Structures are given as structure tokens and as C-alpha cells.
């Protein structure tokens, strides 16, 4: 009886593929109990011919290899393999991941005990040959998985930090459903629709599936005893980071919730730490602190809004002037959730197209945020609207200072790991604020309602090594 179907999508990794398949011949789960489906997704070298050349070494496997002459992408290849599966349990294993002898047995035992989205332990997830040589070194017999895993267990740098991070389960653990080494009941996979093939390039598509499985009642559970090891190979890390940020937006558009926004804004690990504080901030923020009670006192602003076909409001629509068309889109922690119109989000990532709105208005909501976070909201508004107006002292009761608990939480978790590649604006100095409306008579007294148009200031990035002394 086939208990497990292992799906391995493959694209241009012939050496790693053969090693991975050989590691599957050494499983403690009998080879009669599982099948292996390789989906060759348009590789330069036909995986079918490659496997035929190694038929003797792989003869114990119940193995089928299918080929796409034109690549369909990671999501499509995995879905294709799943459709061919005979077993009730699917294991997705990346082509470059060696399988520990106990990997499949642990996945199967876990799923028999409880239906979950299981994510296994992976050694050396981000290492390339160069960084492996630098940080690890030594001789490694990549052709012998048992030998590699025995050695890896003694190398602290190969420890998977998710072991400690995910020891205490949280609702956002779906964000760690990384398909290096995962399992899911086939009926659950099919019920949620499999991998979303709108992710046309690899990255974040596995996380998005983890979220849908979580919403369907299957939490992501980390399995420290179901191990894989990522074989070091050349990779374009810069491109990967850019691709993931692009796909973050695909994820947020599919699931525009505060939890998903936090993952896309602050990175997966930081979001996990910050989410409790973000949720409490959302729940205690008073609408009157971020409403538009005094917007009518700003004639140029109201004129701009009256002439706009599409308006994005970031804050609260409470006390919106009845003389103006209602905002087309509303975003804010106090907003009602109305599909396609109103989103209960922080505003640091928005599920909208570039330039989707004619005008965006940011209420005194910015005052409740630490400066770096407010800058991210302004930057997103500038991406999504052709004109951005920031209000000051226009709410019923504007916040006097940034929310202390939120500021404390985001001081440590507000800067995502990828800022060395994708820069974020963190200071008001990085924008130009031009007065649009001032109080009558030109007074600029504290507490008088004001409005400013905002534009990004030129802010070139410079490496320390480029500074001349």
C-alpha cells in the first residue's frame, strides 16, 4: 500500500536531483510504502534520461518522472505532481534537499496522529558553495545522506533556528510553511485548491498555501525530527529577495488582513514577535483620534477631494464631510472590513495597484505611529496614489504622542531583515511636505487644522566604503 506520495519539482539541478533521489532510497519507511513523483519543469537536461542512467541506484524506488517542455513554475509543477499522487499523504521535497532516513516516517507518524500542515527541519537553508566553504568547510560526502546527516548534527551552524522559534505555537505559524520539506493530507490540499499558480515565479507561494490550510483548520506544525539538508548551490540571493517582496504583495492582495500585512511589512520572524502588540493597538485605537472631524475647515484639501474620482483614506472615515463623495478606499486599524472598499490594516503595506487612487489622505493617524512606521505608511500612500495629502490636527482628538506599546514593539521588530536590499524610508526628512491649507490669517498655532501635500525627497543610498575622508 502506498502511504506517502513524495513530489519533487525539478528545474536545472541534475546533480542535486540525483542525490535527493538516492537519499530517498535510504528511508526507514519501506520503499513499498511510498512513491516518488519528479516533475521536470523545463530543465535543460531531461530528468527522464538522467534517471534512466542511474536506474540501478534508484531501482528500489517506486518512481515516476514527468516532464514539461516549457516550465510552468514551482506552483504549477507541484500541483501537477500532486494530481498524479496515489497516496493520501503528500510530501513536498525541494529538488536540492537531501532526505534524512527518518524524514518520511516522521511525517507519516505525525499525520496519523493529527492532521496538520507539517514543516520539517532543514539544515543549511540559505548556504551557497562559497558560504558553506567559508563557514563550515571540511570534506562532505554528498553521495551518502546518512553520513551527511550524522556530520551535520555535530555542526552548530547547521542547526535550524526554527526549532526554538516555533517551540511555542502561534496563529501566524502558517508563514513558516516552507516547501523545502513539508507534508499535508491530500484531501486538505485539494480542498483548498493546491498551490496558487498566480505566483508565476517561486517565492511566498508556499507561505500562501500554509495560510489557506490554516484557515481550513490545519495549523502549521514544526517537526524537528523530520530532517532535510539543503545542498549548497549557486543562487542569486539579491534577485530572490526582490522576487519575494513582489510576491508579498500578491499574498496581501489575496489575504488583506493585519496578520498578513505584518508578515509582508516586517518579515516573518519580526511579525511573529510584533503581532500581539499590533493587535492590541488595533483594538484600542479610538476612531476619534484618527477621524476627519475638521476636514471641512481645509478648503483646498476639500476641493482636491471633491474633484478626485478615486480617493484613498488612511485613518477613519468617521466624521467625513457629507458634502464630499465618500472615500473609494479606506484603510486603518479602526476601519470596518468591507471587501474591495475598506481594510482593517496598519497601512505599512497596501493591497492596491501602483497609482490606483487619484488622491490619498492620511489623517492624524500618523501621530499614533512611531516615525519610521509613519514613513512607511506615507511611502505606501505615495505608491498607491498620484497625490498624497497629510492632515495635521484635523481629528476630533489627535494623538499627542506615538502609541507607547506599539513604539516599543516596533523598535525591535519594525525593521525587516531584507532592508540591506530593499530600502525603506524611516525619517520625515526623506519627504517634502508643502503646506496646502493653513488656518485663516496664516496662523500656524498648535492645534489649528492644517494640510500638506507630500512628495518623496531625493535620497540616494551610499555605502560607507564610498565616503571619501
UniProtKB/TrEMBL annotation:
Keywords: Transferase
Pfam families: Glyco_trans_2_3, Glycos_transf_2
Start and end residues of each Glycosyltransferase 2-like domain: 5-140, 171-246
InterPro entries noted in UniProt: Glyco_trans_2-like (IPR001173), Glycosyltransf_2 (IPR050834), Nucleotide-diphossugar_trans (IPR029044)
Top-level taxon of the source organism: Bacteria
UniProt GO MF annotations: transferase activity
Stored SUPFAM superfamilies: Nucleotide-diphospho-sugar transferases (SSF53448)
Protein name as catalogued: Glycosyltransferase, GT2 family
